[in-house]
Amino acid sequence: MRRLSDMFYESAANYPDKKAIWCDGKTNTYQELSELVSRYSNLLLHNGVQYRDHIGIPMTNSIKSVALIFAAANLGVALVPINPTLPVSAIKTAFKAGDVKHLIARKAFYEECEKSGGIDMDGICICLDDECPGTIPFSDIQKESVERPIIGRVTGDETLILTMTSGSTGLPKPIDLTQKNKYLRAMAHIRMYNITKDDSVLAATPLYHSLAERLVIMPLIIGGTSVLLPRFTPHIWLNCVKEQNVTFTIAVSSQLAQIVDLLSSPFVPEIDSLKCIVSSSALLEPYVRKELINKLHCNFHEMYGTSETSTVTDINFKEAINKQKSVGRCFPEVEIRILRDNGEIADTDEIGEIVCKSTLVCNGYYGLPDAFNNAMADGYFKTGDMGYLDEDGYLYFSGRKKELIITGGINVYPNDVEKCVLEIPEVSECAVFAYPDERLSEVVALAVEIKQGKTLRKRMVQVQCARNLADFQQPHKIFFVDKLPKNSMGKIMKTKLMEYVRLQCENA
Amino acid sequence: MAKVEEFILKYIQKNYTVSEDTNVYTLNYIEQGYIDSLGLVKFIIELEDEFGFEFSDDELNSPSIKIVGELIKLVERKIA
Predict the structure, then answer these.
(1) Cα distance from A329 to chain B (closest Cα, Å)?
(2) Nearest to A81 by CA among A138, A164, A4, A137
(3) A245 three-class SS
(4) CATH number of the domain where residue B25 is located
(5) Do A73 and A179 meet the contact criterion of CB atoms below 8 Å apart?
(6) B6 touches chain A (CB under 8 A)
(7) How far apart are CA A247 and CA A237, in angstroms?
(8) How far, in Å, CA of B33 to CA of B36, rounded?
(9) Is A39 helix (H, G, I), strand (E, B) or coil?
């Protein structure tokens, strides 16, 4: 394989004056971005960051963040990017799980940490936007050389990104993505969607997720242009596509549903630059897909995948008109099987668990080899999703085996929310489940059973969640129930919850 | 009262600084994505919790709650 930083610097040498990246009104040419990457690498090196160290960062979408990804690749160090809206306590837990030694953050984050007893780092702390006691100001980067430091021992097998995910136990599971993983994933998508140096590729999801990281890496290693949306709203997305002449993007389906709403407005700019849009994360409603194709005049694909495996299947609707409900066929790098509960391979059209073998699968769960082994069966990764294959090899998604809510493209593990709500003394039991939502596909809903003789206001539950959970984990619907529905073994029947609250609760 | 303004401006700019050429008081922080629809619930509750009041349903449904300057005025009125 080739090292990501070598490929990026090669693009910079070939196209120094070309626009490399746009974000939030700022543009960097390849020359400027490569100088930023070199200065960033030197800043880290000169302050004691060493090969294979781990750097934690509550990551926002910015040119600095993209430069950091390539600086990390250049030095052979790992980043642990984290959702900045997570409560400080959850970030500390995640950093511990990811063996974070150094920290890069905004001043607001350091101040937040101070309120809860500070944050201990064995290494350095860099403050991105201001001066902050005990930290190195990012502005020190100006003193650094624009010469690229070369670390000879970087092979590409080093961890580049640890993506945090949660799980049924509530403890973080850091998904280990090496440079090689990132390289292979970027190249697989470049080939699949014929991306060239003439493309402008839009990343409109948060950079602490694998999808946006891939979308910025793809153009920058082949001399194309990366367009990075600082924050998503349908207005910002459409204006950005128009003004930056975006040609390709992969969006999460909930974003596309919001964009379609806006496309019916008479004040929307005419978009003619897009060649292809790919929808990911959840199946699109057919009318959304049709509207997008009609109004954006481009090729339209949907994909299916997981954080651990990257993309598994893809479908181009122009070429597969009779397979409208499918999530497509395998990427060339991937083989899929459908397994019955007893581990046998299911027949064609028979629903079972989707498992896949792929050269794009992550390197494992960092520090948790057993958990990763448990997720594998005979060399195939068990996705926790259910589906079936038809006679032509098209995959159909039919639900999730694991307990997971995907809201606006972000994974929420019910257990994390339930644990937080159970800390309220008046709560006897609670259950978190997915509630359908037009804009976000689904939102977090909570059913609460109150202890006998106690009273509890909805507001107390909201305050507890606001204080202890991230933005995306907040329950949008809260239902108080007399008794949660349980099976004969006493287990809460989550699949029945939606139906149950509809019958029992007025506001459902 | 300056505390309300400080809290709201700080919260909105936790992750992204509003550029100097933007009038922050007329900014629609939802439309401009400084807080997204997933974050709004948390923002409102934290605001109520910090200053010890509750928004009415009408206030929550009013479009002006999404404008920074209008929100500051509303909170200041409620805690006066």
Answers:
(1) 33
(2) A164
(3) coil
(4) 1.10.1200.10
(5) yes
(6) no
(7) 13
(8) 5
(9) helix
Rounded Cα gap, residues A27 and A200, in angstroms: 13
**Extents of the domains making up chain A:** 405-504
Q: Which residue of A has its CA nearest to B42?
A: A466
Q: How many distinct structural domains can be found in chain B? A: 1
HSE value, Cβ hemisphere, 13 Å, CA-based, for A285: 17
d(CA A121, CA A92): 10
Query: pTM for this one?
Result: 0.89
φ, ψ of residue A365 in degrees (nearest 5) = -100, 120
Query: How many whole angstroms separate alpha carbon A372 and alpha carbon B40?
Result: 35
* A84:B42 CB<8 A: no
pLDDT of residue A508: 62
Residue type, A172: P
CA–CA dist A151, A160 (Å, integer): 15
Contacts of A440 (CB under 8 A, 6+ apart): A254, A407, A408, B37, B38
SS3 A246: coil
Please name which of A431, A419, A414, A405 lies closest in space to residue A483, comparing C-alpha atoms: A431
CATH fold of A405-504 reads: GMP Synthetase; Chain A, domain 3 (3.30.300)
Encode pLDDT of A359-404 as tens digits: 999 999 999 999 999 999 999 999 999 999 999 999 999 887 777 8
> Rounded to an integer, what distance in angstroms lies between the CA atom of residue A274 and that of residue A381?
34
Q: Do A231 and B10 touch (CB under 8 A)?
A: no
Most A-contacting residue of B16, B28, B34, B49 (CB-CB within 10 A), to test interface = B16
Question: How do strand A102-105 and strand A125-127 relate by DSSP bridges?
Answer: parallel
CA distance A204 to A240: 10
Query: Which element (helix H / strand E) includes A38?
Result: helix A30-46
Chain A hits for B33, Cβ within 8 Å:
230-233, 236
CB A88 within 8 A of CB A114: no
Q: What are A446-501's pLDDT values in tens digits? A: 999 999 999 999 888 998 998 888 888 999 999 999 888 887 777 788 878 888 88
Sorted by sequence, the CB contacts under 8 Å of residue B19 that are 6+ apart come out as A25
Q: Does the CB of A457 have a partner CB in chain B at under 8 Å?
A: no
Instruction: Please check whether residue A317 is in contact with residue A283, taking contact to mean a CB–CB distance below 8 angstroms.
Output: no
Domain that holds residue B22: 2-79
In the DSSP assignment, the letter for residue A476 is: S
CB A182 within 8 A of CB A176: no
